[in-house]
Amino acid sequence: MLNSPEIRAVVFDLDGVLVDSTEVMREAFTVAYAEVVGPGPAPFAEYNKHLGRYFPDIMRIMGLPLAMQEPFVRESYRLAHRVPLFDGVEEMVQELRERGLGTAIATGKSGERARSLLEQLGVLHLFDHVIGSDEVANPKPAPDIVLHALALLGVPAANAVMVGDAVTDISSARGANVAAIAALWGESDEAELLAAEPDAVLYKPKDLLTYCGW
Asked: Which neighbouring-strand residues pair with 104?
């Protein structure tokens, strides 16, 4: 793992990186599928392969009705109290802030839903900007959301990193010319992420501090 002493900002994905939301997403997706599509097993495993993308984009890729979005969002809000931060995340972000780094979130969620969740968790204040996929022209894997974060932070790509748990995050980071960091403390597919050749791999949140050279 190479040290990167010139890092001035970190852009994070949200689900699977900062918050452990897999089970809540599974439940919300299952309810939405039952309401809109009907009986039968909800294809959550396939949905999970596309995490990092905006929900409507995933529906189009999977050939599922866009009408699933309304019940999925409704259930996600209803169950949000069950979504925890990963152990060590809050302390890691606090350390970044104390050392003067800018912090932003670039998520597949809508901006409103992401900010609501972070506020509920009591950590919204730790991020300079929280950007949702509905707030850029082209969501991940396009680079728009990372580029927008960098513009808001006032930090050039050479001095920033993107931390994500999905190939879509790696692609978005690469398109924005920022270092692409793979987070493997959640339930991401390690082999798939490693095959995307990220610039660094982190196995626990505090590894990011080591990557920064501290």
From this structure: 11, 129
Assess contact for 72 and 24: CB atoms under 8 A. no
| Per-residue model confidence (pLDDT) at position 25 | 96
Q: How distant, in Å, are the alpha carbons of 19, 58, 172, 187 from that of 181?
A: 17, 23, 11, 16
Rounded to whole angstroms, the Cα distance separating 153 from 177 reads 15
At residue 132, the 3 state secondary structure works out as strand
Q: Give the number of other Cβ atoms within 10 Å of residue 151's Cβ.
A: 10
What residue type is 106 in one-letter code?
A
Question: Tokens 């866009």 belong to which residue?
Answer: 66
Tell me what pLDDT residue 164 has: 97
Q: How many residues does the chain have?
A: 214
* Backbone φ, ψ for residue 87 (5° rounding): -55, 130
Question: What is the rounded average pLDDT of the residues 54-68?
Answer: 97
Give 202's contacts (C-beta < 8 A, 6+ positions apart). Answer: 163, 181, 182, 183, 184, 185, 208, 211
pTM: 0.94
Query: What phi, psi does 200 have (nearest 5°)?
Result: -155, 160
Whether omega for the bond prior to residue 141 falls within 30 degrees of 0, making it cis, is yes
DSSP helix/strand/coil, 194: helix
Tokens 């580029």 sit on residue: 147
Q: In the chain, which ranges are continuous DSSP H helix? A: 22-36, 44-48, 55-62, 69-78, 89-98, 111-121, 144-153, 167-175, 190-195, 207-211
